[in-house]
Automatic annotation (TrEMBL):
InterPro entries: Ac_CoA_lig, ACAS_N, AMP-bd_C, AMP-bd_C_sf, AMP-dep_synth/lig_dom, ANL_N_sf. Belongs to the ATP-dependent AMP-binding enzyme family. This is Acetyl-coenzyme A synthetase. Mg(2+) binds at V535, H537, V540. Gene3D superfamilies: 3.30.300.30, N-terminal domain of ligase-like. It comes from Geodermatophilus poikilotrophus. ATP binds at G384, E385, P386, D408, T409, W410, W411, Q412, T413, D498, R513, R524. The gene is acsA. It comes from the Bacteria. NCBIfam families: Ac_CoA_lig_AcsA (TIGR02188), PRK00174.1 (NF001208). The modification N6-acetyllysine is found at K608. One of its GO terms (molecular function) is AMP binding. Catalyzes the conversion of acetate into acetyl-CoA (AcCoA), an essential intermediate at the junction of anabolic and catabolic pathways. AcsA undergoes a two-step reaction. In the first half reaction, AcsA combines acetate with ATP to form acetyl-adenylate (AcAMP) intermediate. In the second half reaction, it can then transfer the acetyl group from AcAMP to the sulfhydryl group of CoA, forming the product AcCoA. It catalyses: acetate + ATP + CoA = acetyl-CoA + AMP + diphosphate. CoA binds at R189, R190, G191, A192, T308, S521.
Amino acid sequence: MSESTELEGRRFPAPEELTAQANVGPDVYERAAQDRLGFWAEAADRLTWAQKWDEVLDWSNPPFAKWFVGGKLNVAYNCVDRHVEAGHGEQVAYHWEGEPGDTRTITYAQLKDDVCKAANALVELGVQTGDRVAIYMPMIPEAVVAMLACARIGAVHMVVFGGFSSDALASRITDSGAVLVITSDGGYRRGAPSALKPAVDEAVGRTDSVRNVLVVRRTEQDVAWSEGRDLWWHDVVDRQSTEHTAEAFDAEHPLYIMYTSGTTASPKGILHTSGGYLTQVAYSHWATFDLKPDTDVFWTSADIGWVTGHSYIVYGPLANRATSIMYEGTPETPHRGRWFELIEKYKVTILYTAPTVIRTFMKWGEDIPAKFDLSSLRVLGSVGEPINPEAWLWYHEHIGGGRCPIMDTWWQTETGAHMITPLPGVTSLKPGSAQTPFPGIAAKVVDDEGNELGDDTTGLLVLTEPWPAMLRTIWGDDNRYVDTYWSRFGKEVYFAGDGAKKDADGDIWLLGRVDDVMNVSGHRISTTEVESSLVAHPTVAEAAVVGASDPTTGQGIVAFVILRGNAEDSGDELVQQLRTHVAKDIGPIAKPRQIMVVQELPKTRSGKIMRRLLRDIAENRELGDVTTLTDSSVMNLIKDKLPASS
Ligand code: 6R9
């Protein structure tokens, strides 16, 4: 049996102590299957509604869904005020930690005051219900306050990741028609202040909808100032009243737009609305992580500029009255133990992060986490890409101390909340598989004609019933919404764009985007499978695999690998060893045509490997657009390593 299959064969039953007191037990699946809409209605009852809904779901005009029809609520009230009213004002909402080591502790009572002041400021600036507000900020508490202030007055926030270029910001401002930009002078990254305001100035100069720019002072860098347009947050927000009455909005009132890259050049503005979204993010946060608001300390390590930050730093945790960690900087500043230091300091009980981070920690070595007391941790989570069984095991052992179950959560910007994931007190875990559709979610693996597949046959992942946190459309482009997601198998089946297979137990394995599925001599091979195999080799820390066009086989497998710190690069000998390893592990058909040992891999700012660029290299093409890379010099590093012929 191959190494990775051996690992994949291992099971990790739910820890008994956890099962005994878990928020949800195994009966939840049956309950949801018997009465799906009743199940979601119960989940919605966890929120405070100003007016109860008349109908749980209106699916009379698919794929345009309406959830909790006729219901009214205020999202910010649900995230903040109601907890203060219930006597929890002194509970910490966020332990915030700046990269330089400055800290802020924000209670629910303080958050309520801050959100009310910011809401009053937005009103003073003429922002109205339904207006779009761009937020372009570092990971500072004002980013959360700004989002909630928008939600409070019914304005639609549109957060753009602070690492994006002014181009990206400008196109998103134009597409959404934002009237206000909330930003800061800058933030701290890798030990130095990094400016944001210049990108805003450039972007706003090229758009015509923005009336004002509201600027938080964070780094105290010098900033250019446009009189009349630019305003300091501390001038405008600080003097406002802490009283603001939250109006209840329709359950389908737009809450936010989040742009996500698609296959074409223009990003898609994914629209999320209020009642259904908050229902599913709150319920999933509570169920997937077994969140106990009185005792847990929850940490999602994502940036607020991604959907993971929206759903599991802001809306889910706050709706559940969680105490969360918010960290401004990078894992290696000022040292590689920074995260573990934070876990120890705040006694974090639940950590939610991405496989790419785990693999980076693997590369740095297990002696780093070993120096810290991580015994407070009890549940771990993973999101963003398939987690290789090796990374899973490393996470389980070296961060989770062998005792914490790992929730491998599959979902997307479009789905809004967890869709396929184990549950901590229920599921017997299989490293590398996201396993089970969430209660109340219907997922299948199908072939090109839409026929359901099982028995480990690779196919496409589809969602066959609407769900509360689903996207409602692409902003301003209903046709693109229908074409992209609801056309391939008819307008009632959501096409996720991910390859998947279902094993004999009915567990789902995600295999990467379908454009990452290679076709070698007519065989479908997932890039993820080959990557997992390479990472299972003792010398390899990280691997990225692409299918490069090949005159004989259709596509040939080209792998880029980063070696572990202690592994020696023996050149050709090592490459041959790795090729043989994969051939033995998966089958000769999966033997990489070429393997290149590199120092870094090109990644987007959300940590996804940019296989498109690697494919360019593998096929000897001019490099495509590198603007969304964290570090575009990575590509030069890789090219320098190539044989002279390429
Ligand atoms: C939440 C988020 C969505 C895409 C998705 C899939 C990949 C996310 C995953 C996973 C395997 C997981 N993905 N979680 N693949 N296992 N647990 O990441 O949203 O940035 O929109 O990306 O990420 O390919 O389609 P988003």
